[in-house]
Amino acid sequence: MKLILAAIIVAAVSCFAHAQNVVRYDLTIDHKMVNYSGKKVHAVAVNGQIPGPTLEFTEGDIAEIHVKNNLHELSSVHWHGILLPNEQDGVPFLTTTPIQPMGTHVFRFPIKQSGTYWYHSHSNLQEQKGLYGALIIKKHDEPPMPSYTVLFSDWTDEHPHEVMRMLKNANDWFAIKKDAVQSYGEALKAGAFKAKFRQEWQRMNAMDVSDVYYDAFLANGKKEDSAPQFKAGDKVRLRIINGSASTYFWVQFAAGQLSVVATDGIDVVPVNVDRMIIGIAETYDVIVTIPEDKSFELRATAEDRTKATSVWLGSGEKIAAPVLPKLKLFEGMKMMNDMGKHKMEMSYQQMDMNEVMFPEVVPDPAKPGELPPVTLNYAMLKSPVKTDFAPEKPLREMKFRLTGNMNRYMWSMDDKPLSRSDKILIKKGETVRITIYNDTMMRHPMHLHGHFFRVLNGQGEYSPLKNVLDILPMETDVIEFDANEEKDWFFHCHVLYHMMAGMGRVFSYADSPPNTQVPPTKKNWNYFRSEDARMLHSKFELSAQSNGLFGHGQIANNYYFAGTQFHFNPKYGFESETKFGRYVDKQQFLNVYAGFELNREKQNGRWENEGFGTFGFEYTLPMFVKADARVNTNGRFRLQLAREDIAISRRIRLDAMWNTDKEYQVGMRYILAKRWQLSGNYYNEYGFGGGVTYSY
User: Fold this and answer.
1) Are residues 154 and 79 in the same domain?
2) Do residues 476 and 436 touch, judged by C-beta distance below 8 A?
3) How confident is the model at residue 483 (pLDDT cuts 50, 70, 90)?
4) Of 64-73, 461-470, 601-610, 631-640, which gets the smallest average pLDDT?
5) What is the CATH number for 134?
6) Half-sphere exposure (CA, 13 Å, Cβ side) for 535?
7) Res. 141 pLDDT band, cuts 50 70 90
């Protein structure tokens, strides 16, 4: 007993001594000009680099991180996956005070875990511009194996606010850049005209696996990274982080299989796979073997397969990893049309409906007996130790539906964005079990701050622990976590643009002490949750034709809009209509509005001015035809049917309009560039015309 007591005292003293090891980092957030695509553009860097410096700790350390903000806007840093005091979590206006322009904030917290993690901004869209970096925590008894950290990310030359504006306006320039338009002409060539027609009849947008066109994908801030230090026979632990804003990556290794040994920083029983798809914000530790003195490619291909990035391990002759073929998008369209018919129970990535678009999973007749690649899914993950909670703990169960509207790019949970939600109350000491159903056609990597959750994937007591769960379309997953914290914690989709559009909730511990940095006032809560409502988006189009000048513009948020449209011809006059309205249904097919119309027309040889108020509603019919029924203050009723942006080919668009005032118009545009189009139209009051159109 004395020997045991002495050993305990020695161990305690040793741990105490180690716990006093304060590891300090000084980080400076600042502007930087970068060139990843041949074009010099603005970025946000940490200590002058993208990604920011890798922060390294050992479990038991005290982290002290001084962050200086040299931007002219508020900033923040979230320590993703780290278990820490609530005030150190880095979510502005919820857990941590924002870092003021030209100000400094000091984060200090104990390191209570080990593994592969990362950090990133939680302010606005700064993460997309470069504010992220790796955070590695080593065990006391870290195995003596060479390791290499790989942080994959995506880069766009567009300003992130412009990206969000284009997504909100359903602008298809990204699809043109990716060659993913799925027009009627291309559908006809692919034998999928019926599927295209059916898709639009169901008011569903064209199928794509990602929202944004990216100019580059990066590995450790480069299009290609290299680690020539590894030699034949080396087993290398790769710490892989998906630090992208909205890109999933397929990861493959040229020299053979990947042995997955950890996910989101937590060990799993090793599992060997040929390839893996890494969700946004996920981390995986994998072990690879360098078989000979050559340079082997670790290739990360964007899920939409537009581009890839690589890390070359070893030196010598380059051995490339497999190149993934282009997606068969029309097969995805057919699958999406039929999703409502099938009531299959899908969970934990075991049935990826997108596989119909993967040419590589279809058997090659020229290679009989060849098996498809082994792909990692969550059902393969198993904890090496028991993770179950004490059965006597109170159980709180809840269900969430992940919901959204691709037409207006509004993302939500249970049909409510964050701005329209309340905090979800939980109690310390409970087990919180959540069933999540993805009722959208996009993947959503859901992240819980301040906790790890068990993924109930069929492994029973050995269910793996994660802090990010990728939930596929039409999939149902179940997670549970130990409610062992206090105060408020964010739960959200880690697709940056989905989160900013409203897909998130806040878990709030009942009877918690107040947050010393962000007092739990109604003002702070309303400011935090209303970010999606504050994000206004606008659009404007001006068409200069030989038969007149045509234009329209709009500014909107998730629910409200104000817009105007006009046309002018010096011979026939001027007409304009302005609307102020609100969407009223869950699908946002219906809006009601009030407004006014101003006209100047020549009647009986004289110019007459006229103005009146209007009241009406607009409903989106099948085929995206907008039916607009209104009455004006003179008692005149008008019904108008219109359809815009019918994709005839990759760059040709058709528009049409008819109303009961005996007006009709047909127009066609050829898209030259992001802003400019060649255009022509026939308007029954002005005749034929041609010219150019500017779109914003």
Assistant:
1) no
2) yes
3) very high
4) 601-610
5) 2.60.40.420
6) 32
7) confident
Query: Quick one: pLDDT at residue 374?
Result: 92
- Enclosing domain of residue 191: 143-343
Cβ 692 vs Cβ 544: under 8 Å:
yes
Q: At what angle do helices 329-338 and 193-201 cross, to 10 degrees?
A: 50
**Pairing label, strands 504-509, 424-426:** parallel
pLDDT of residue 213: 97
- Rounded to an integer, what distance in angstroms lies between the CA atom of residue 368 and that of residue 380? 27
How many other C-beta atoms lie within 10 A of the C-beta of residue 186? Answer: 20
In the 8-state DSSP scheme, what is residue 383? -
Strands 258-263 and 266-273: antiparallel
Residues 489 and 598 in one domain: no
Cα atoms found within 13 Å of the Cα of residue 626, Cβ hemisphere only: 19
Question: Two tokens at 273?
Answer: 């796979």
pLDDT of residue 644: 95
Which of the 8 DSSP states describes residue 421?
Answer: -
Residues 533 and 558: beta-carbon distance below 8 Å: yes
Based on the fold, state whether residues 488 and 570 are members of the same structural domain. Answer: no
* Contact in structure between 637 and 631 (CB atoms under 8 Å): yes
Burial of 370 (0-12, 13-18, 19+ CB in 10 A): exposed
- Same structural domain for residues 138 and 154? no
224 and 274 share a domain? yes
Q: Are 557 and 419 in contact (CB under 8 A)?
A: no
Q: Is the pLDDT of residue 19 over 80?
A: no
Two structure tokens written together for 657: 């309009």
List Cβ neighbours of 367 (8 Å cut-off, separation of 6 or more).
Answer: none
> Is 564 part of any domain?
yes
Q: For position 10, what pLDDT does the model report? A: 35
Does 605 or 94 have the greater pLDDT score? 94
* DSSP-assigned beta bridge partners for residue 227: 313
Per the rule left: phi > 0, alpha: psi between -120 and 50, beta: everything else, 182 is left
pLDDT classification of 367: cutoffs 50, 70, 90 = low
The whole-angstrom separation of Cα 639 and Cα 628 is: 6
Is residue 5 scored above 50 in pLDDT? no
Q: How far is CA 430 from the centre of its chain?
A: 31
Rg, the chain, Cα only: 28
Q: What is the pLDDT of residue 17?
A: 44
Omega before 53 within 30 of 0, i.e. cis: no
Distances in Å between the Cα of 582 and the Cα atoms of 113, 403, 527, 681 are: 48, 19, 22, 30
Instruction: Assess whether 153 and 276 both reside in one domain.
Output: yes
Q: Kindly tell me if the per-residue pLDDT of 526 is higher than 70.
A: yes
Q: Can you name the residues that pair with 421 across neighbouring β-strands?
A: none
In contact, 541 and 554? CB cutoff 8 Å: no
521-126-165 Cα angle (round to 5): 95
Shared-domain flag, residues 592 and 672: yes
- Would residue 178 count as lying in a domain? yes
- Across 142-156, average pLDDT: 95
Average pLDDT over residues 542-568: 96
Among 92, 121, 142, the domain-final residue is 142
Residue that has been written with the tokens 């790989």 in this structure: 150
> 39 — phi, psi (to 5°)?
-130, 130
356 close to 332: Cβ distance less than 8 angstroms: yes
- Tell me the pLDDT tens digit for each residue of 46-69: 999 999 999 999 999 999 999 999
Return all residues near 215 (Cβ < 8 A) that are at least 6 apart: 36, 37, 39, 155, 156, 157
| H/E segment holding residue 166 | helix 160-168
Q: Is the pLDDT confidence value at 11 over 90? A: no
